Amino acid sequence: MAPTRAGALFAAVTLALFALVAAVVLTAPYEDPFNVIARLAALWGFLALGIATLLTPFLREILEVFGRSFLSLHHTFAAVGLLLPTLHPVTLAIGAMNPAVFIPVFSPWERFWALAGRPALYLLYIAFAGVLLRRSIPNYWRWVHGLMYVVLLFAIVHGNLIGTDFEDPIIWVLFNALFALSVAAFVLKRWRMMQKKANP
């Protein structure tokens, strides 16, 4: 089944957003290639994860619009959202020759939030593991996978506090709006689940 016009428009907008982010990063005055790669990986990774969460309330609509199952589309964005945020600290560690970027900092409180991307990476993998273990923990895997929203919270705070590219108004508006929409998608999904239980 071929995607509808709405599906093609969504794909075009998505590609445009990735291209826009790349343009902002690549035109910033930074010569260190490790810095550029790390920043692009972080932003693209957040963008992919944000889109993956936005899709979650629309299982039936996705099949109608894209001609593909929700899981195939969701997992595509999730895979990108797993790989690129991993590449972000790996690139920084290689560039600085310092593995400390993988170590979470819990004190003081302000520094924890500034470096919240560090624990977010571990929570990302725990959330991913929840999907792999859904048959082993059928009553809990959704709660574990729901940590993805905590990951997005940690990442957006981290970006706003110390993210170089968040000084650009385009990036600031785009990513904060994406986070707000992700929260809205979470609320909508829970509301639909409640409605379904109330009206089986």
TrEMBL record:
<feature type="transmembrane region" description="Helical">
    <location>
        <begin position="140"/>
        <end position="158"/>
    </location>
</feature>
<feature type="transmembrane region" description="Helical">
    <location>
        <begin position="80"/>
        <end position="106"/>
    </location>
</feature>
<feature type="transmembrane region" description="Helical">
    <location>
        <begin position="112"/>
        <end position="133"/>
    </location>
</feature>
<feature type="transmembrane region" description="Helical">
    <location>
        <begin position="37"/>
        <end position="59"/>
    </location>
</feature>
<protein>
    <recommendedName>
        <fullName>Ferric oxidoreductase domain-containing protein</fullName>
    </recommendedName>
</protein>
<keyword id="KW-1133">Transmembrane helix</keyword>
<keyword id="KW-0472">Membrane</keyword>
<feature type="transmembrane region" description="Helical">
    <location>
        <begin position="170"/>
        <end position="188"/>
    </location>
</feature>
<keyword id="KW-0812">Transmembrane</keyword>
